[in-house]
Amino acid sequence: MTITEDRPAESGPAGEIGKARTRKEDQRLITGRTRWTDNIQLPGMLHLAMVRSPFAHATITNIDVEEARKSPGVVGVFTGRDVADGQGLIANAWPLNGEQKTPNHLPVAVDRVACAGEIVAVVAARSAAEARDAAELVDVDYDELPAVLDLKQAATDEVLAHPDLGTNTSAVWTLDSAAQGSGTDVEQEIAKARENGIVLEREYRQQRLIPAFMEPRSTVCDPTGEQLTVWTSTQVPHILRFLLAATTGMPESKIRIIAPDVGGGFGGKLQTTPEEFATIAVARRLGKPCKYTETRSESILSGHHGRDQIQKLTLAADRDGKVTGLKVELLADLGAYVGVVGGGVPVLGAWMFNSIYKFDAYHFTVRTLLTNKTWVDAYRGAGRPEATYAIERLMDELAVEVGVDPLEIREKNWIKHEEFPFTTVAGMTYDSGNYEAATAKAKELFGYDELRAEQKRRRESNDPVQLGIGISTFTEMCGLAPSRILGSLNYGAGGWESASIRMLATGKVEVITGVSPHGQGHETAWSQIVADRLGVPFEDVEVLHGDTQIAHRGMDTYGSRSLVVGAEAVVRAADKVIDKAKPIAAHLLEASVEDIEFTGGRFGVKGTDKGISMGEVAMASWTGHNLPDGAEPSIDADATFDPENFSFPHGTHLCAIEVDTETGGTKMRKYVCVDDIGTIINPLIVEGQVHGGLVQGIAQALWEGAEYDDQGTLVTGSFVDYTLPTSADTISFVTDHTTSPATYTKLGTKGVGEAGAIASTPAVVNAIVDALRPFGVDDVVMPCTPERVWKAIQAGHPVT
Ligand code: MCN
Question: For ligand 1, atom 28, which residue shows the shortest CA distance?
Fold first, then answer.
């Protein structure tokens, strides 16, 4: 991997920025020396098991818990009614608008269940095995109700997921470029194109996906002290504390949430879960510590799912392939309940369907619908992979219509390097980017022309193995903040991030961050940043996170925000440390503050070799023996950062796939991605992030998909049926970067945590469809299994 700089990062003396350090947290993470939530043992702790509904929609007519109560080791069995007082309501943080219909979501159902897997009773026992055995003895009588399982059916309201709401539509949300003044009227552009141009009308399906993290979700609640302490495998300890306080009436000061090391989340732990609330309710009720750890099957069934949209698209263009307008009509499945991000997920895509392209008219509508399936919320990329998929598929279709290379059609439509900053038709201002540079580099690394030549040869010789080339030139809006914009979207929380730096007497540094890593390597990257800024050794920096008692303020980790928002807060705190240390250094050096310069981790007197290290100033401030008049004996500092804009990474991904037209089998030949994420802090971490994201995006294209039967039972309920890829299923990726730093932060970084997952899905499907063009195929429904590919070849069109 090489990095092309067109503006060097603001890097400090230690040269830590851009260093490929191995992750300091890995030692404990991969040698079993860490403490996951499930490892926590407290004196007298009870274990919980959940009794879950097998029905998608049913009235609970009776729950008989007597046999379960008599079972060995059982301390209590609780129905929804038993814990009704203390269980709170699972809160929704992002009501799309005042009209949004949000069904009450109780952690333990009381009268009715709205999806299979919903909790109907909780068993507490001395051991997990005893709790599970007893759970089998809970006898629940249900009266089945009609279930709505299909999105289009849900839109008709013929069958209601929640009869009391009177409709399945939770909310309708619209972005109209003409109405908001960022563009013209889309209907007019479509009408013009129908007269004298090109109109493409397509419908794409974003299948339902299931986030699969390594560590299943687990919660321990200790209600015995002055405070309620909750250890939980979550991405959002601060949001959980707030929502728990808001829904139970407990003051935040009495709630301590600890996210110990968390084994992955991918958006799946960006949630306040029924399991967390139920564990807390039962622990409070019994006055004893309780632990619940889900099984993998429970995780698949009842952790929230992702994607699940039907996208209806109308694209208008002139005869040369210059796009003039885009109309997007989405149906988005929320499942049975509305989660923390919930209806906000498709809305995140609203600004991304126009992607890197400039055109005049844009209209986006999403209708979020309730169904009797597991609830849907954020999954890596949340809203942006869906949008990127649609526009990148459409760009390929447009290229075919115009009869030019798909790269050419993109180049014709994208925002040029010299046009940045650029305000898009959706109303976002992209601060920097260079699509030409990323694409040129990707093309070269890919061997684009050679592969096109090979494709031609195979086509001409009717080779049973055809070659397809897939392109995805993408951007995304990440770094979730700015609070002001999130507020205008009704998002319940802000988007700022906080940091504290404590300069310890020995010269060591403690960094407290409000973000909550769950596999991203923040301890390493944040240490690099602080070492660089303060000129202290990397090894001397300790990063603390994920405990609301230590990191009081925070907005947690999701939306590739941690570096862009969280680490910028760290940088600002570090700069305050330097500002506070300077007068003390001047005093100790008997010089005026104006003569002090801070370089290489030392405060020096200009024009002399007199100097003092940051560590020495830290010691002096700790003793307080010899400080300037009025100086406080501390150089610690806090900072909160709320950026003025989102972060807009971009990139060009190219993929070559061989398709066996006799079997429908697909084989990836080559995958090249050139991402532009501004300044890179740690290339090794970035490489890992890109690889992980790529595999998730490729998996959506080729393998993964949640399927329900017509009773509402999840039939892909295990990893035998839900085909999560392993490293053996993928190839070695070629990754590289260009650098267009963000213009509104000191580090110039852009997020990377979701890039691979956003960009790769359309690259893969575009490659498969490209291979099948000679067979009249213009789409393959995801996941593109051999069966679907083969059927599409036979039919000459997509087959679901
Ligand atoms: N980084 C960097 N230079 C950049 C950009 C990022 O060195 N220019 C580094 C950062 O320092 C950080 C990592 O890359 O260590 C990811 O940074 P960022 O893009 O800020 O993303 P977040 O840390 O906010 O992580 C969230 C993102 C999301 S939204 C999902 S989903 C996801 C992901 O990260 N889930 C993950 N990556 C994951 N990785 C693991 N192992 N597990 C998950 O659950």
Answer: 753
- In the reported structure, the alpha carbon of residue 641 is separated from the centroid of ligand 1 by a whole-number distance in angstroms of 18
In this prediction, residue 85 carries a pLDDT of 67
Reply yes or no on whether the pLDDT at 515 is more than 60: yes
748 Cβ closer than 6 Å to some ligand 1 atom: no
Task: Please report the pLDDT score of residue 498 as a whole number.
Answer: 98
DSSP state of 566: I
Q: Which two tokens stand for residue 171?
A: 């909310």
Per-residue pLDDT tens digits for 701-725:
999 999 999 999 999 999 999 999 9
- CA triple 281-285-291, angle to 5 deg: 60
Return residue ranges of the chain for CATH 3.90.1170.50. 37-145+217-293
* CA dist., res. 53 & res. 237, Å (int): 28
pLDDT level of residue 149 (50, 70, 90 thresholds): very high
User: Hey, whose CA ends up nearest to atom 34 of ligand 1?
Assistant: 753
Among protein residues, the one with the nearest Cα to ligand 1's atom 18 is: 560
Q: Residue 247 has what pLDDT? A: 81
CB of 233 closer than 6 angstroms to any ligand 1 atom: no
Q: Is the CB of 740 under 6 A from ligand 1?
A: no
Q: What is the mean pLDDT of residues 316-326?
A: 98
Distance 739 CA to ligand 1 centre (A): 18
Span 357-393, pLDDT tens digits = 999 999 999 999 999 999 999 999 999 999 999 999 9
Residue closest via CA to ligand 1's atom 23 equals 562
Report d(CA 221, CA 659) in Å as an integer: 52
Query: Cα(529)–Cα(15) distance, rounded to whole angstroms?
Result: 9
Range(s) for CATH 3.30.365.10 in the chain?
A: 3-34+496-641, 381-477+646-795
pLDDT of res. 7: 39
Best of 21, 432, 541, 560 to mutate for ligand 1, by most ligand atoms within 8 A of CB?
560
CATH number of 381-477+646-795: 3.30.365.10
What's the complex ipTM? 1.00
For residues 474 and 544, is the Cβ–Cβ distance under 8 A?
Answer: no
| Cβ proximity of 754 and 640 under 8 Å | no
Q: Which atom of ligand 1 is nearest to the CA of 678?
A: 8
Instruction: Name the residue among 378, 293, 380 with its Cα closest to residue 343.
Output: 378
pLDDT reading at 486 higher than 50: yes
559 lines ligand 1 (CB under 6 A): yes
Which one is the CATH code of 3-34+496-641: 2.60.40.10, 3.30.365.10, 3.60.20.30, 3.90.550.10?
A: 3.30.365.10
Cis peptide leading into 95, omega within 30 of 0? no
For residue 30, report the distance from its CA to the centre of ligand 1, in Å: 18
CB atoms within 10 A of CB 71: 18
The reply to whether ligand 1 has any atom less than 6 angstroms from the CB of 306 is no
> Which of the listed residues 432, 689, 696, 700 should we mutate to test ligand 1's pocket, taking the one with most ligand atoms within 8 A of CB?
689
Which of 29, 340, 520, 750 to mutate for ligand 1's pocket (most ligand atoms within 8 Å of CB)?
Answer: 520
User: Which letter, b or e, does each residue of 15-27 get, where b requires 16 or more Cβ atoms within 10 Å of its Cβ?
Assistant: ebbbbebebbbee
Query: How many Å lie between the centroid of ligand 1 and the Cα of residue 752?
Result: 6
Yes or no: is domain 37-145+217-293 CATH 3.90.1170.50?
Answer: yes
**Single-letter residue type at 790:** W
Region 195-224: mean pLDDT is 97
Tell me what pLDDT residue 6 has: 40
The pLDDT score that the predictor gives to residue 159 is 98
The answer, yes or no, to whether residue 633 has pLDDT greater than 90, is: yes
Separation between Cα atoms, residue 740 and residue 738, nearest integer Å = 7
